[in-house]
Design goal:
Oligomer: single chain
Structural class: alpha/beta
Distance between the termini: 38 Å
Shape: globular
Radius of gyration: 24 Å
Strand order of the largest sheet: 2-3-1-4-5-6
Length: about 400
């Protein structure tokens, strides 16, 4: 549970008014004093995250947020943090004191509908003020799914978790049953996958990067085998296999090496394209890469990173991709790099090139892609942009899109 990355957890967001009991509810659910609680409005100033094992959903992440009615000096910035957290929600808990439901709760409910995520009303402090039947019926007319709890009754933690499990199970059934595999659906038991993993100055010392580790695990889950090679011994490893691999996967930065040695009858793709399917909209990102050919002098390109990191001298997003796109397009372009937070205004950009989203969950990635699409801005990701500029994107997409 502790080693499961945040991006692969079910994310449950608690949102509501100040002093509605969000932080106390988080502490009760997690069985520990994770969040500071107080009667003073604005106690929660930033998103508080707590990982927990929640059967049958496995590792989940609870997110406690600042009050949606925070009128303190920094309130607007805190609310903006809450809005960003809502984009990550796989399920939203609208937390309110018993008997309270108004514009704020309605706005949160509409946000959940817009983001296409299930919402649950949680009424707190029922030991102080039990909700009336008429009030509950009025809420049920808007949001049929609700529960009530007393935050100080720690002995009823298991009872509350069991109630939420019963509530969540049907709400999340479709989502859990439709989870997209990374690559195991492309394999049969006994298959071999050859992975081309470069060891350069951006590779973490003594480790592989997260997408590579997850891909290896997915191969094992398919009862298949993974063979890992670097760019120096890739050709030899490919030739040494008695049976051709069912699939070859490479880091986007060495896709040209893979395609140079890979026979046309062996499917090959990149880790970045696998993650485009896992986390986002594969077709949208594929079409977005083609927009590189339409760029004109002076166009602005957004390079969107989902995490902060110490950039290397030849950083993929800040150095390599701008060089490749400038060379491919033959235009004088303006590149802007952002880390983590996505812009609220995209109007000046002609193309967005997003990272692989290994640090974002699918819900937040799709929210970003939908925001770009609704603004008519083409969007692709790092690996697809590189493959397009190298002239091999069609080949790298062949395992997923017929006649790509």
């Amino acid at each position: 549970m502790l080693t499961t990355p945040k991006s692969m957890r079910l994310q449950i967001v608690l949102a509501g008014r100040s002093n509605s009991g969000k932080s106390s509810l988080l502490n009760l659910l997690c069985g520990s004093k994770t969040a500071i609680t107080s009667n003073i409005p604005g106690t929660t100033t930033d998103v508080v995250e707590k990982a927990m094992e929640f059967r049958p959903f496995g590792p989940v992440l609870f997110l406690d947020t600042a009050g949606f009615d925070d009128h303190t000096e920094l309130g607007e910035k805190r609310i903006e943090k809450t809005r960003n957290a809502l984009k990550r929600a796989d399920i939203l808990l609208i937390v309110s004191r018993a008997g309270v439901w108004g514009d704020i709760e309605n706005e949160l409910l509409e946000t959940a509908k817009t983001n296409k995520v299930p919402a649950v009303a949680v009424f707190t402090h029922i030991d102080v003020n039990a909700p009336e039947e008429n009030f509950l019926n009025e809420v049920k007319a808007k949001l049929p799914v609700l529960c009530c709890c007393a935050l100080e009754e720690t002995g009823k933690r298991d009872e509350l978790l069991n109630e939420l499990r019963e509530i969540f199970t049907p709400l999340l059934k479709e989502k859990l049953n439709s989870e997209i595999p990374l690559l195991r659906d492309l394999l049969n038991p006994g298959d071999t996958v050859l992975m081309l993993v470069p060891i350069d100055n951006q590779a973490p010392k003594g480790r592989l990067i997260l997408p590579q580790v997850q891909a290896i695990r997915d191969v094992l889950d398919a009862d298949a085998s993974a063979v890992v090679a670097n760019e120096n011994n890739f050709a030899a490893q490919l030739a040494n296999l008695k049976t051709p691999p069912a699939l070859v996967v490479c880091d986007s930065q060495v896709v040209h090496v893979m395609m140079e040695h890979l026979p046309s009858d062996i499917p090959g793709t990149t880790f970045s394209i696998l993650f485009a399917r896992l986390k986002g909209d594969l077709q949208l990102l594929y079409e977005g890469a083609k927009a590189i050919e339409t760029l004109e002098d002076g166009d602005h390109i957004l390079i969107a990173e989902a995490c902060t990191h110490h950039a290397a001298d030849d950083d993929i997003g800040r150095v390599k991709i701008p060089k490749l796109i400038s060379k491919k397009s033959g235009k004088k372009l303006n590149f802007e790099v952002i880390s983590r937070d996505f812009p609220d205004d995209l109007t000046k950009y002609k193309l967005i090139i997003h990272c692989g989203s290994c640090m974002l969950n699918r819900q937040e990635t799709l929210a970003r892609l939908e925001f770009a699409r609704s603004n008519n801005i083409p969007v692709t990701n790092f690996g697809m942009a590189i493959s397009f500029c190298q002239g091999v994107l069609t080949r790298a997409m062949s395992p997923f899109i017929k006649n790509a």
